[in-house]
Amino acid sequence: MPRSWTLKGRPSGMPTADNFALTETPSTELSNGEVRVANRWLSVDPYMRGRMNDTKSYVAPFALGEPMQGGAIGEVVESNADAIKVGDMVQHMLGWRDEAVLPASQVQKLPDLGVPVQQFLGMLGMPGMTAYWGLLDVASAKAGETVFVSAAAGAVGSTVVQVAKAKGMTVIGSAGGADKCAWVKSLGADHVIDYKGDTPLVKALGAAAPEGIDVYFDNVGGDHLDAALAHARDAARFAICGMIDGYNSSTPTQLKYLMRVIAARIRIQGFLVTPYFARASEFYEDMAAMVKSGALQSQDTVHDGLDATPDAFLGLFSGGNTGKMLVKL
Amino acid sequence: MPRSWTLKGRPSGMPTADNFALTETPSTELSNGEVRVANRWLSVDPYMRGRMNDTKSYVAPFALGEPMQGGAIGEVVESNADAIKVGDMVQHMLGWRDEAVLPASQVQKLPDLGVPVQQFLGMLGMPGMTAYWGLLDVASAKAGETVFVSAAAGAVGSTVVQVAKAKGMTVIGSAGGADKCAWVKSLGADHVIDYKGDTPLVKALGAAAPEGIDVYFDNVGGDHLDAALAHARDAARFAICGMIDGYNSSTPTQLKYLMRVIAARIRIQGFLVTPYFARASEFYEDMAAMVKSGALQSQDTVHDGLDATPDAFLGLFSGGNTGKMLVKL
Known about the structure:
The structure is a homodimer of 329-residue chains. Helix content of chain A is 24%, strand content 26%. With 329 residues, chain A is of the alpha/beta class. Chain A has two domains: 3-121 and 299-328, Medium-chain alcohol dehydrogenases, catalytic domain (Quinone Oxidoreductase, Chain A, domain 1, Alpha-Beta Complex), CATH 3.90.180; 126-274, 3-Layer(aba) Sandwich (Rossmann fold). In chain A, strands 3, 4, 5, 6, 7, 15 and 16 form a seven-stranded mixed beta sheet that branches. A six-stranded parallel beta sheet of chain A has the order 10-9-8-11-12-14, with helices on both faces. A two-stranded antiparallel sheet of chain A has the order 1-2. The longest helix of chain A has 13 residues, at 126-138. Chain A binds chain B through residues 50, 57-58, 221, 226, 234, 240-243, 246, 250, 252-256, 258-272, and chain B through 50, 57-58, 221, 226, 234, 240-243, 246-247, 250, 252-256, 258-272. β13 of chain A pairs antiparallel with β13 (253-255) of chain B, so a sheet runs across the interface.
């Protein structure tokens, strides 16, 4: 019988395994236009934490008792639609389950870019689009500029590092621990800051960027954002993608250097990736060229089996992943 | 003998009268191309607090032992330059003194707009340009939108209120105390929040703007900025002009609602007025039309005599002014 992870309760602060329940649902027959997908890869992403709250936001909260939604990749095993054939590899948003039944209009066939399919949940999927458009469009980063990116060993951050290097920028990344830092350096970052090290972040960033930074790509918020404010050059642009520091906390963000937005004429721009879905072909074209040239490397942290999905998700908040966090079914 | 206020010491935290010294300097003869200006009006402005610190910023710090610089308006009483005649009313930046001797290239003759000359230190001067360009260019505020402006009874804020109303926006202003609030209402604001009242700011703003705000013009920072974050609509724009809350404090800014920049895709843009000096003629043309139509009213808080200059300046940080704070010589 198909199984899925449903939202059992809403967390206050850090989520736990108890927030989720593994449930069985009888298999359904396909209606006209529907397909059945056997999922092969599930995505867990930091933004899902926000949807666990019952608050108004840019997407509806996850419903209690319903399966957790999210990106998934699978093989079509039954089709009642003309456009999608059995054997097609597709992507959809039905999330944490082993089998998905849905209208063919709600699945996307994966483009043939000659890469492992799971990359369409990472560098060539939503995290990759987030990195690409956040860096190049939201922050208007240009060749020759200095870019600081936090959580540089994460799915989004590691793509920012590599796209920025491929486009001729100087890159400073932050990550937690020696292994992650070494990996970020191997991706081409000019400087890597271990935020778990002894040096205060604001001092470490000053040493890495003595002339200051032109762009900050924020995945973390808090101290990272404050350090970026402290070292922003005139007319710096901040693309605010995430603030994982605050997702599980109700403590106010404390900023010592916020007033620098005025003197340095900083632009801080929050953004979502969804408006950029319409520009997917532009994204695939440019990214495919970089993949082919060898400019982009990918790394995944893989948990095995549907049962492990909550663990994979919770690991996002304890630094458990290098590169994209995935569940392989 | 000409007298001026010099910077005697740098404040830590709130400045005091002891930071300034009234000094006499022998009168100098004019060199070729110079003019002598008998000052009539001196400007004191919040930004001057920043220049009292010995820190790198967008303008050099005030030098110890030297006269405080700043906007001033006076009458030319002696001229050794062709372009400027005795009797001309001019503006210059030599600041807190009764007489200024400087090259004619460093004074601007006042445009003839049929208004009291001191308005060129207020609504038609730097504070006015700051309000006008911050609202219309930095924040891209449009007719039909809802604008929140803090320190709405100040020189900049009161101009924001009036320009926004003249351009067809809904305006919410905040000010401290019943008298200031009544004045802001008389300028045309749709709602006025007394930030010294019992209702927490975030709640008061929610009541005044149940549909949220499109634009926030920040003169204050801190709680005001946080309330604006809490109630920002999708794609809201914040023009950050000043953060007077923090000028005399080393306490970090605490923001509970900062994470909303992502979900609401907020743009926070710090700005300075200096790049807009090049567009002065555009500004004068539009503002003159509004002055003639009666859309703009001006109010000054006037201190009398050079001796009172430090008191006028210090009053900026204790809510001592309604409208523009000026010293009349």
